[in-house]
Amino acid sequence: MLNYNLFASTSIDLFNTTIDGVSYPSKVLQLYIQPSLIYAYSPNLNFTGSLTYNYQRSNSNASFFKEWRTWEQVLFGHGLSHGRMTHRVRYEQRFIENENTETWPMTTRIRYQLGFNIPLQGKTLDVGELYFNYYNEAYFTLTVPPGTLRNALYSEYWIYSGLGYQTKKTGRIEVGPLLQFNVRDAQQDLRNLYLLQVSWITNLNFPTKKVAK
Question: Residue 181 belongs to what domain range?
Answer without folding.
Answer: 2-201
